[in-house]
Amino acid sequence: MKISSLTTTEKLTYLFLILIFGLGIYYANTNLQYFDEVYTKEDGFAEYGTSFLLFCSSMLLLYRFFKLFKHKQILWKVGVFLMAIVFLFGAGEEISWGQRIFNIESSEYFIENNAQGETNLHNMVVGETKINKLIFSQLLTVILVIYLIITPILFRKFEAIKNLANLFAVPIVKWHHTIAFLTCTGILVFIPSSRKWELYELAFGVIFFLIFLNPLNKGIYTSNEN
Q1: Is pLDDT of 226 > 50?
Q2: d(CA 42, CA 211)
Q3: pLDDT band at residue 58 using 50, 70 and 90 as cut-offs
Q4: Is residue 35 assigned to a domain?
Q5: Range of the domain at 148
Q6: Please, what is the angle between helix 196-213 and helix 175-187, to 10°?
Q7: 226 in any annotated domain
Q8: Within 10 A of 102 (CB to CB), how many other CB atoms are there?
Q9: Which of 44, 82, 144, 170 has the most CB atoms at less than 10 Å from its CB?
């Protein structure tokens, strides 16, 4: 990967991630209390930033959905619409659907069954199992490995996989997206705090927005590609 091949937006975005994670390493190793209670605090810039970027990804997908609606086949529409809904859901979940922003009390059900007493699904507890750990951590990790590493290889090697991905409008990552994710993952080792996952979620939001903005198969977002 050549730096010169990156767009200006990608360069600036990666510089942003370098700054955010660099400061994260510094604060976590010099002032852990500041890192936990200010830098990555609940309802802080990392959490709201993640929600905002997930929302932007969803809006970008919906914009393309409506813009290209009459030019595309049904499976393309299904793929784009479902991805837009998933990211919109993620944006809402990240901030508990604005519960704390608008001072909304949780219902009795969520108070009893949610690990944080909030109105969201990812902190729900079923029996002894936390949904966040089972689905949003373990399952998501498997999906990311497949999507970021395996799928790009198969896409480049097999025409059938390429056609299938394009048919459902699945954006394929460029290698710099994969490298960015792996780098952010590795950096977590140097952050001795459980709040480090807030930064990782922010990186998720940032990199996925870049993926949707400029995927390897960008032709799926033009009127010429079915």
Answers
A1: no
A2: 27
A3: very high
A4: yes
A5: 16-221
A6: 180
A7: no
A8: 7
A9: 170
